[in-house]
Design a protein that fits this description.
By secondary structure, this protein is α/β, with parallel strands linked by helices. Helix content is about 45%, strand content about 15%. The chain contains 9 helices and 6 strands, in the order H-E-H-E-H-E-H-H-E-H-E-H-E-H-H. The protein has helices at about 5-15, 30-40, 50-65, 75-80, 85-90, 120, 140-150, 170-180, 185-205, and strands at about 20-25, 45, 70-75, 95-100, 130, 155-160. It has a 6-stranded parallel beta sheet with strand order 2-1-3-4-6-5. Helix 7 links the parallel strand 5 and strand 6 (about 155-160). Helix 3 runs parallel beside helix 5 (about 85-90) and helix 8 runs antiparallel to helix 9. The chain is globular, with a radius of gyration of 17 Å.
Length: about 210
């Protein structure tokens, strides 16, 4: 993977390989890199007025084309708004993949913007609900989601992609540096800086090992 590629680029490349022509969404900051990268690769991004509409549209494309539909929604209320449409796809046995944004990995469970337990909410209505924890896992996780949506009895699959996996590494490091505090002097501040640095190393480590 080139140094300038983002997690959003990795997701978009999978969409192209999977034959996805339409990405349905309601635009949100958590998932914006996916939308930008998909549009740059010729995938038509359809911005709807409600997240349920986005998933209903992905369901319709799956039924009409045989290619799993694809939708991406922002974290929190973006995901909760999809439940009716997800259940409809599950009952209709329609293959589709839904990517849901999520708060940054280090901030989960700490009261960050739109941070809720999305997995528990979505899991009963999909074939599988899973979460990506490292950039290098984005491609295999998404490819597995597409495979599973078609396999056996078709149906929807949910993949949660935290925001810090999708944006440029340099920008994410700036976010975390601001959280940790630059120029730390106290023992506690230095310990926090070490912890954040270690977390970032795991988040972006071995990205070049992502399969093409």
């Amino acid at each position: 993977m080139g140094a300038s590629m983002t997690g959003g680029d990795l997701v978009a490349d999978v969409l192209v390989r999977q034959g996805v022509r339409f990405l349905f969404t309601l635009c949100g900051g958590h998932i914006s890199p996916i939308l930008v990268s998909a549009k740059a690769r010729g995938v038509r991004v359809v911005d709807t007025r409600h997240e349920a509409t986005a998933v209903f549209a992905a369901d319709a494309v799956a039924r009409l084309t045989g290619v799993p539909g694809f939708a991406a929604v922002t974290a929190g209320p973006g995901v909760t708004n999809t439940i009716t449409a997800l259940k409809n796809a599950q009952m209709a046995q329609s293959p589709l993949v839904l990517v849901g944004g999520a708060t940054a990995t280090l901030l989960r469970g700490r009261g960050a913007l739109q941070d809720i337990d999305q997995m528990a909410l979505v899991r009963p209505h999909v074939k599988r609900a899973s979460r990506v924890a490292r950039v290098r896992d984005l491609v295999p996780a998404l490819e597995e989601a597409f495979r599973l949506s078609r396999e056996g009895v078709p149906g929807p699959v949910f993949l949660e992609c935290p925001v810090d996996l999708l944006y440029p590494e340099s920008l994410v490091r700036e976010w975390y540096a601001a959280k940790a505090g630059k120029g730390a002097r106290t023992l506690g501040e230095r310990a926090l800086g070490w912890y954040v640095g270690r977390h970032l190393g795991r988040l972006f480590g071995d990205v070049g090992a992502v399969p093409a």
